[in-house]
Amino acid sequence: PTARFTNFPSEDSNFQQLKPDYVPGDLGFDPLGLAPDDADDFRAMQEKELSNGRLGMIAAAGFLAQEAVTGSTWGTYWGLPDF
Q1: What is the DSSP code string of the chain?
Q2: What pLDDT, in 10s, does the model give residues 17-63?
Q3: Of the given ranges (6-10, 23-27, 30-34, 69-73), which has the lowest mean pLDDT?
Q4: Whether the Cβ atoms of residue 63 and residue 74 lie closer than 8 Å to each other
Q5: Half-sphere exposure of 65 (CA within 13 A, CB side)
């Protein structure tokens, strides 16, 4: 039997392609005006955001590892069982 989707998506389709004017991290929503106007400053902000996001994921993995090892949540460890 042949696979039904052997050539999906085709190379000439625009399936999951970014728009030409799209800039990662700039979705046009900045109600507080925190995004820098300078391209270099914007790039630095993107890098900081990625670094902090990765640090947050490592912290979340640490919480899960601690709970797997001890069998209790971090709130219970600190005397806050409802946390």
Answers
A1: ---TTTT-S-TTS-TTPPPTT-BTTB-S--TT--S-SSHHHHHHHHHHHHHHHHHHHHHHHHHHHHHHHHSS-HHHHTT-TT-
A2: 878 888 877 888 888 988 888 989 989 988 998 899 999 999 999 98
A3: 6-10
A4: yes
A5: 6
Adjacent-strand bridge partners of 26: 23
Instruction: Give me the amino acid identity at 39.
Output: A
Tokens of 70: 């001890």
Both structure tokens of 55: 């640090």
Q: Which residues pair with 23 in a beta bridge?
A: 26
Q: Which two tokens stand for residue 17?
A: 């392609």
